[in-house]
Amino acid sequence: MSGLYNLSKFENDFCGGRFWDFSKLWDFEQPDFTGCFQKTVFSWVPLAVILFFTSFELPGYFSSRNKNRIIRLNWYNALKLILTLSLAAVNIGQIICVGMVDGDDDLSTREVFLADYLFGASYLLSHILSFCLLLLSLKFGVRASYTQFIFYLVSSVCEATVFRSMILRDETSSTVIDGELYLMGCQLGFGAVMLFLNFWADCAPRITDESLKDISNLCPESAASIPSKLTFFWVATIIWKGFRNTLDTAMLWTLPPSITSSGVVPIFDSFFAPSVEAAKKID
Fold this sequence. Notes:
Layout: H1 2-14, H2 22-26, H3 35-62, H4 75-101, H5 114-139, H6 146-172, H7 180-197, H8 226-231, H9 236-244, H10 261-282
Helix pairs in contact: 3-5, 3-6, 4-5, 4-7, 6-7
């Protein structure tokens, strides 16, 4: 009983309500998540996503096998940088908006809790990381980022759910802070545009692997966007050629040296040979 009391006290002090209420999803004509669930999970999940995938993607930027460097600033990546900064500005506005009514005695304004601050702060940190990742991708010649695409896909779903809930609450009660709905709409709109932009890859880097310069029919995977890679849409051109004509070796793409046997086997041997020698010593 003590555990249930402490949990309820935590919910009330942290976000001002129950964290989970199954009846709101099942028994209502318009199903919805609790405000506490939205202010926590729907902001923490996008942050966890960008942190998780960045930890796997970022080492590849600094890898010695990445020979690409410097993508020129153009309208595409400049727009992404501006939108990301705009998203961070919106999150700062959300924190300020919450802080302005914190402790206000106005009965028409809902009470503010720590979860309200963490909602904006979590997204602010996410968008700062996204901005830093964009700058690094320009420096290290990364044309498309799995982390960016997955982050904006997840965050758009979460933001759309929160925005819908705000609209419902604004219609039925006065629990939405003035400006909160507008800022959330801006965040959803900017995030949706960022997701849309990530359906294309950036332009080619200025500095590339010297071994690629003599290849005239290079495999287009390196220039494909993340959705194209995930769906193998970049293969569609050669499939269409094969459907219309008989393919011959001249039509096939030349693979980058880094993924041919001459490029992969030495890397494999560098790890495999020491393991074999260590196993011999054990025997």
